[in-house]
Model the fold of this input.
Amino acid sequence: MVAAGAALADEGGLANLTMGLLAERLGVRTPSLYKHVGGQKDLNRRIAALALNEAAEAVGGAVQGYAGRDALAAAARAFRAFILEHPGRYAATVGVEPDGPDDPLSTAGQRLLGAFTAVLRGYEIQEPDVDHALRTLRSLCHGFATLQVANGFQMSADIDESFEWLIAFTDRGLRALSRPSAGEAP
Done:
């Protein structure tokens, strides 16, 4: 049922997903859904957990065996592709907060965070800057992909080229934050 709700959110937007629409898709009466979910908010939270797990799988799989710029590029491309393919379910992840450490949202969010943290290891970002770097990566990928989903890029430049430019720009910034090597001046 959650997967069907996620598919509907991708097709028509999360804001347009209703329990009635989901019931219609599943060929059941709306009250039957309440045996499985507590309502619209619960459904949206479950879709968010599904989306975070799927995004973590995509990004985590993409970065395996890579480091530095190659890992950054793989992670950014995988995250963007996920958002473009699943805009509704991804929208469910924005602004939703886990109820505690055992909440499936927390577990899934930590998996995705772990994949992006692995990317940063290749840059040797100092500990006080890791949270800032993670927020920067999420903001860049999220912003680019959600603008693309909303047809927000109206200029003539190729969108894929712009995304590769964003990756190169981010790589230069992260390298600038890296710890100096032994014997190098900071």
In short: The CA atoms of residues 60 and 115 lie 5 Å apart. DSSP finds nine helices and no strands in the chain.
